[in-house]
């Protein structure tokens, strides 16, 4: 409230107070002077009147003695004019006016007030207002002849009055006022100049008092007029130096902190694992680039800081597998979970871990640190390994079981005839062959995966290679009465291939065509040389491959779920091996197919 | 020109053309598909890429940066001898993990 009023500068306040008190003093002085003057005039008037009275009494008494009673009227008139009296009168002892400066009063009874005795010789004084409203002062003195009171002389004068006294000095007042005013004004100017430096100091101190934060106020030096201004300037200088030092220390500290923070951010952003930090309320306060990409998605402008982690994880946060991550009971310990996210057409599996964040000697966590890692590939590898184990186990056990069963029967049974024995031996042989082929495929694929599959490239006669492959599949084709057509160009170029492995590729493709084509179907092998590439197209009229299974047919151990395929024996390794071998030859295998219509496999390899 | 396939969770990018200024847009389009999800993992099969030019190299580095910004990685597989020499001579080889074949490159994501 103190500072709600309008603040006047110190010099002006001082000058104003100075003038106020000076003028008050002058006013009082002036009043005193007037009062004293009044009293002085009063006293002087009385003295004058008494003198006039004495003179009048003496003159009238002398004239009375010399000229008798007739001379007192002229004496009265003379006394009045000489003394500038209001009137002069002689009153007999009986109260009758026997002489008066106003002759119409002669003979009347004197009606004035009694008055007060002011001298021992009987002189009295009376103050009254006459019938003409004049303030009069009347002095009365006895006129004695010998010891006998002859009469009383009355002399009256008009009361001087305050304004009359003032007006007597009116001519001199302006001069006095001017002189006094000049001195006062000069004093005010000198005083103003003396205190002016304090105005700036006062202004700055008022600003400090008004401000809620002293640090934000800038103090400025003032022009030096005296010790106080000099002291102020030294204080301001010291404060500025201190501010500079603290600013510098603060800037250095901020720069060091920022650099450390930047370095920490750079380190975290270099990691492939997503790292995030949440506060006690689950809001993300920091996320590295990997985490932002994982949670924020494609749009880099999406900022996940400030959002709830549970919102960012989306619908996966509500599933039972991830509930532990947000369980209030488990806030103080590490929790790990796996969540599945739909990423377009793909499914990604991420391993999420949440660790309590502890800083300093805090006993309870100040938030959590989150890590997220895409483990899809690991999961697929584990699944493939499990699938491999299942398939390998089945493919090994089945023929072994058959071999064991038939061998046991042969060894234990005495009732078998020669034909039956031959049949059992053939079965054992074919199962052993199947087992051997599976193990060969398995070894080949394993070699392929570990990169130890060696290729022995040689220039081979293409036509001869095709013929050898066809011959291996011929029995299977003839058994099912399948029509097999071959379309070859007039002259086939030589190719540089690993003869054995490439033959296996062709045998696998032709064998599949024969296996999955029903009896009486058709297989056609068309070979074309276009530019520097050789196209080998194997088309069948078999069961075909479903569209959704096409992308997976070259996957290891993959077999179609079509019952017509399942009932056929197979390891699921043939096409995988073929694809890898063709790739090793810098070629490719393409497939088109239609359910119940058949499939077409096209091998493309460069011509040597 | 550039073809994208999958091996598990890893994108395999194959091509039969040189990685030059004329063809980088095609690779860009395929790369964008790979970057369309968090933490992208991809292998560029260079078996059939005959050579690079400076634009191709520059874009390759840019693609690698974009992968890393998303917490992912782009690896190279089966470069031809000429491409390997170009990568080595330009000093870019240390920026990439280079494998002799695609399977090795894909398998490295399991480690």
Per DSSP, the total helix count of chain B is 4
Instruction: Calculate Rg of chain B over CA atoms.
Output: 13 Å
Mean pLDDT of chain B: 88
Average pLDDT confidence of chain A is 83
Give the strand content of chain A.
15-25%
* Helix-and-strand structural type of chain B: alpha/beta
Number of strands of chain B: 5
Estimate percent helicity of chain A: 40-55%
User: Into which percentage range does the β-strand content of chain B fall?
Assistant: 15-25%
Task: Please provide a brief summary of the model.
The complex is a heterodimer of chains A (608) and B (111). Chain A has 608 residues and is an alpha+beta fold.
Could you explain the architecture of this structure?
The complex is a heterodimer of chains A (608) and B (111). Chain A has helices at residues 10-67, 72-83, 162-168, 173-210, 227-269, 289-296, 309-313, 376-412, 418-450, 462-479, 499-515, 563-566, 574-584, and strands spanning 87-92, 97-100, 116-117, 124-129, 135-145, 148-158, 274-278, 284-287, 335-343, 346-356, 368-374, 457-460, 483-487, 495-498, 522-530, 533-540, 588-594, 598-606. Chain A has 608 residues and is an alpha+beta fold. In chain A, the strands form four sheets. A six-stranded antiparallel sheet of chain A has the order 2-1-6-5-4-3, covered by helices on one side. A five-stranded antiparallel sheet of chain A has the order 8-7-11-10-9. In chain A, helix 11 packs antiparallel against helix 13. The longest helix of chain A has 58 residues, at 10-67. Chain A is rod-shaped, with a radius of gyration of 69 Å. With 111 residues, chain B is of the alpha/beta class. Chain B is 39% helix and 22% strand. Chain B is built from four helices and five strands. Chain B has a five-stranded mixed sheet. The termini of chain B are far apart. The model of chain B has no long low-confidence stretch (mean pLDDT 88). Classes of the chains: A alpha+beta (608), B alpha/beta (111). The A-B interface holds A 270-274, 288-291, 293-298, 300, 341, 343-344, 346, 348, 374, 376-378, 380-381, 384, 448-449, 451, 551, 580, 583, 586 and B 5-6, 8-10, 35-39, 41, 47-48, 68-73, 100-104, 106-107, 109-110.
């Amino acid at each position: 409230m103190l500072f709600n009023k309008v603040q006047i500068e110190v010099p002006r306040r001082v000058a104003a107070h100075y003038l106020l008190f000076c003028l008050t003093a002058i006013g009082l002085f002036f009043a005193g002077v007037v009062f004293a003057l009044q009293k002085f005039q009063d006293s002087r008037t009385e003295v004058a009147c008494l003198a006039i009275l004495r003179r009048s009494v003496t003159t009238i008494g002398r004239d009375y003695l010399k000229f008798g009673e007739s001379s007192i009227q002229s004496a009265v008139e003379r006394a009045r004019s000489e003394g500038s009296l209001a009137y002069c009168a002689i009153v007999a002892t009986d109260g009758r006016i026997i002489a008066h400066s106003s002759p119409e009063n002669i003979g009347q009874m004197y009606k004035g007030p009694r008055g007060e005795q002011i001298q021992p010789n009987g002189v009295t004084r009376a103050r009254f207002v006459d019938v003409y409203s004049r303030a009069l002062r009347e002095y009365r003195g006895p006129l004695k002849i010998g010891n006998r009171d002859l009469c009383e002389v009355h002399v009256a004068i008009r009361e001087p009055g305050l304004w009359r006294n003032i007006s007597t000095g009116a001519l001199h007042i302006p001069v006095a006022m001017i002189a006094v005013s000049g001195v006062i004004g000069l004093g005010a100017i000198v005083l103003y100049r003396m205190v002016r430096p304090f105005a700036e100091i006062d202004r700055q101190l008022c600003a400090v008092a008004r401000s809620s934060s002293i640090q934000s106020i800038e103090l400025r030096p003032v022009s030096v007029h005296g010790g106080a201004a000099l002291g102020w300037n030294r204080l301001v200088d010291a404060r500025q130096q201190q501010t500079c030092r603290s600013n510098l220390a603060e800037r250095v500290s901020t720069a060091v902190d920022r650099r450390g923070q930047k370095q920490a951010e750079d380190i975290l952003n270099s990691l492939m694992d997503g790292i995030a930090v949440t506060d006690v309320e689950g809001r993300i306060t920091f996320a590295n680039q990997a985490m932002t990409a994982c949670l924020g998605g494609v749009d880099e402008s999406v900022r996940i800081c400030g959002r709830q982690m549970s919102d960012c994880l989306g619908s996966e946060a509500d599933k039972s597998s991830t509930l532990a991550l947000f369980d209030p009971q488990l806030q103080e310990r590490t929790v790990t979970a796996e969540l599945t996210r739909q990423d377009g057409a793909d499914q990604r599996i991420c391993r999420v871990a949440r660790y309590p964040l502890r800083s300093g000697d805090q006993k309870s966590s100040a938030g959590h640190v989150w890590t997220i890692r895409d483990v899809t590939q690991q999961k697929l590898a584990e699944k493939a390994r499990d699938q491999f184990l299942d398939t390998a186990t089945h493919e090994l056990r089945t023929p072994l079981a058959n071999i064991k069963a038939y061998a046991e029967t042969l060894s234990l049974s005495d009732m078998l005839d020669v034909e039956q024995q031959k049949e059992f031996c053939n079965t054992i042989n074919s199962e052993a062959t199947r087992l051997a082929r599976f193990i060969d495929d398995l070894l080949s694929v394993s070699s392929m995966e570990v990169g130890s599959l060696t290729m022995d490239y040689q220039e081979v006669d293409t036509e001869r290679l095709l013929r050898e492959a066809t011959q291996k599949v011929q029995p299977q084709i003839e058994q099912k009465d399948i029509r097999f057509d071959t379309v070859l160009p007039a002259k086939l170029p030589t190719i540089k291939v690993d003869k054995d492995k490439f033959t296996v590729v062709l045998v696998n493709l032709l064998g599949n065509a024969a296996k999955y084509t029903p009896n009486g179907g058709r297989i056609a092998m068309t070979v074309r040389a276009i530019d520097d590439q050789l196209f080998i197209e194997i088309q069948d009229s078999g069961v075909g491959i479903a569209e959704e299974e096409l992308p997976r047919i070259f996957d290891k151990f993959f077999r179609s779920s079509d019952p017509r395929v399942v009932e056929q024996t197979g390891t699921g390794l043939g096409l995988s091996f073929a694809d890898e071998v063709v790739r090793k030859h810098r070629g490719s295998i393409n497939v088109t197919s239609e359910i119940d219509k058949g499939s077409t496999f096209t091998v493309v390899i460069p011509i040597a | 020109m550039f073809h994208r396939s999958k091996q598990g969770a890893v994108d395999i990018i194959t091509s039969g053309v040189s990685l030059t200024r004329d063809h980088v847009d095609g690779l860009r389009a395929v790369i964008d598909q790979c970057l369309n999800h968090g933490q992208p993992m991809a292998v560029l099969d260079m078996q059939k890429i005959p050579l690079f030019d400076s634009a191709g190299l520059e874009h390759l580095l840019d693609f690698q940066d974009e992968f890393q910004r998303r917490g992912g990685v782009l690896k190279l597989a089966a470069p031809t001898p000429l491409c390997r020499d170009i990568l080595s001579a330009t000093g870019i080889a240390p920026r990439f993990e280079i494998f002799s074949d695609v399977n090795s490159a894909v398998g490295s994501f399991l480690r």
